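seq:
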Amino acid sequence: MQSVGVLALQGGVAEHTAILRNLSFNVIEIRTPDALDSISALVLPGGESTTLLFLMKRWGLTKPIQRMGKNGFPIFGTCAGAVLLSSSISEMEHEVKQESLRLADVKAIRNYFGRQTRSFIENLSIKGLTDTFKGVFIRAPLLQPLSEGVDVLSSVDDGPVLVRQDNLWLSSFHPELTSDDRLHRLFLERSGLLGMEE
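struct:
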């Protein structure tokens, strides 16, 4: 059985874990670098990006995950996880001094769609899925590609909300907050993992 890791320092860990287990994957909650040795893909959940990065540094996870991402390891970042994967971070009208993993050629504009009180749900058209997907947006970033190597998989009127660069997937919204497992399934299929868990 293939194992997928979920960064388990803060944020929506349980929801991602439930979906991955329903897809018949073993799930390993990642809190220390040695746990990374046992997985075939990694999910960076939503939460608070600066807090996540602080905790990743504290537990020695930042550099190992950077190495994995640069070496083609499949990583899926949702909301704050997508911000962590981005190479550039800003607020609506100014750059911010926030570190990140700097793995994807993407500029994440934090809280682009408003604070938590302005959360919303939108039906999204996603490349690779036949029917629309219900996107749950909570303090969501906008994801602007910075190179031609970034493939936009879904957009709203304001711009991209789901992008892929090779092994890296970034989602503005929270696919784990629905009962729909198709986006996780798509990530695992395109990463060559779905079907290998038998």
